[in-house]
Each structure stands twice: as structure tokens, then as C-alpha cells.
Amino acid sequence: MSIAKVTEISASSTSSFEDAIREGIDRASETLHNIRKAWINEQSVVIRDDKIAEWHVNMRITFVLDD
After folding, report:
1. Which of 37, 34, 25, 39 lies closest to 64 in space, CA to CA?
2. Measuring CA to CA, how many Å separate 47 from each of 30, 44, 54?
3. Which of 21, 37, 47, 54 is most buried, by the most CB atoms less than 10 A from its CB?
């Protein structure tokens, strides 16, 4: 039997939502092991000079705890 835990993280990118998600998962994987899922529960953008300057995501990451 395995036990999983869920943690919430925020990440941002200056290029896209996809890149923000990738950056967040890459960073989380430096300290979390056995990541199984990511659920994107919020997306937002920062507007500067009438253009998108940053893409932000809040996500929940599910990982299985070590035995």
C-alpha cells in the first residue's frame, strides 16, 4: 500500500503557462520524490504596457511518500 501527499506550489514564467508549469514541476522535483500528478487550479497573468509580462500558475502536486 502506498500513501500520497499533496502540496500546493506557485510558479511563474516570462514566456507561457506551459513553461510556468514545467518550471514549477522541475523545481518541486528537486526536493519531492515520486511525483505522480499535478493539478493546475489557478492561472493568471501580469500585464505591463498593455502586454502580458508574466504567466503565473498555482498547482497541486501529488507525490508518493517513501516507505
Report:
1. 34
2. 30, 10, 7
3. 21
Specify whether the CB–CB gap between 1 and 64 falls below 8 A: no
Better pLDDT: 26 or 67: 26
**pTM to 2 decimals?**
0.88
Question: Which residue reads 502586454 in cell numbers?
Answer: 51
* Chain segment 26-59, per-residue pLDDT in tens: 999 999 999 999 999 999 999 999 999 999 999 9
The three state secondary structure string of 6-17 is EEEEEEEECCCH
Give residue for cell 503557462. Answer: 17
